[in-house]
Amino acid sequence: MVKLSAELIEQAAQYTNPVRDRELDLRGYKIPVLENLGATLDQFDTIDFSDNEIRKLDGFPLLKRLKTLLMNNNRICRVGENLEQALPSLRELILTSNNIQELGDLDPLASVKSLTLLSLLRNPVTNKKHYRLYVINKIPQIHVLDFQKVKLKERQEAEKMFKGKRGAQLAKDIAKRTKTFTPGAAVQQPEKKKAGPSPADMEAIKNAIANASSLAEVERLKGMLQAGQIPGRDVRQGPPEMVEVEEEEEAGENGVVHVEPQMAMEEGAMEMEQEGVEGVTGHLGGVREVEEVQQVEDVQQVDEEGGVKEAQDEDSEEDMDEDSTVNGS
């Protein structure tokens, strides 16, 4: 795509066409937006924008001289408001092979009182019911529509169809407009379901951590959390996506009963909230540090007791040696 710049306008072909109008040729540049047209200095009767990528018919400065606008083979789906103020002398508008969908999208053209020729061939709007009569009623001064002369019979039929309250209601019913995004409007996005442990699960986790009495118990709780299990609860409750749990009990050689739950779940259904897991991991780390400190203190106490016992044994041996010496003498 090429931006419609002042340099492009100055370099584009300019000539006098067969009907003796001064024409600017901006055909086939893949221009997406109409802009910078003030660089034309209002020196042209006709501007050819055919075979581009224009989506909206607007962006014109005041061009009093412009009479013909060729916009065929673009992607126009909307017509800008107040077009008559920028192009007060516009007589011919060719919109063949564009993407205008609804009859209501043509309403802005009703204000262009100088418009006498309009082509909407190969636009989806031409397939709408009452299309031709609607356009004739909206733009009564038009002489040629889709390269067919507007007949007196069509004018009378259009006037009769849209006359009075019933006709006004009919025009209102069929004059729908294409829904478009309004700049600045908030985009509504579907709310994402929050995956993670429920408040009851968090409470059960905290209680299990508080009741942990050994380092082995702490390690077991940590493993359960990493596996997505909720400790301290008799029945494992999963998210709504989880299917029913089927349990099979198998007895081992030592008589211990093993319960092996088999679960089918969608991928990612057992993911827990990062915040909750980090908080629980922090609690587990605190309990683990307390256990390690307690073990170190126990070892130190044992070493101290051993030292005291050794000292007592040495004193007993010395007393025995002294007794033996006295008895021997």
From TrEMBL:
InterPro entries: Leu-rich_rpt (IPR001611), LRR_dom_sf (IPR032675), RU2A (IPR044640), U2A'_phosphoprotein32A_C (IPR003603)
Composition skew (Acidic residues), residue ranges: 292-305, 312-329
Gene3D superfamilies listed in its UniProt record: Ribonuclease Inhibitor
UniProt key word Repeat: yes
GO BP annotations, alphabetical order: mRNA splicing, via spliceosome
Alphabetical keyword list: Leucine-rich repeat, mRNA processing, mRNA splicing, Nucleus, Repeat, Spliceosome
One GO CC annotation: U2 snRNP
Subunit details: Identified in the spliceosome B complex. Identified in the spliceosome C complex. Found in a pre-mRNA splicing complex with SFRS4, SFRS5, SNRNP70, SNRPA1, SRRM1 and SRRM2. Found in a pre-mRNA exonic splicing enhancer (ESE) complex with SNRNP70, SNRPA1, SRRM1 and TRA2B. Contributes to the binding of stem loop IV of U2 snRNA with SNRPB2.
Protein name: U2A'/phosphoprotein 32 family A C-terminal domain-containing protein
Encoding gene, per UniProt annotation: SNRPA1
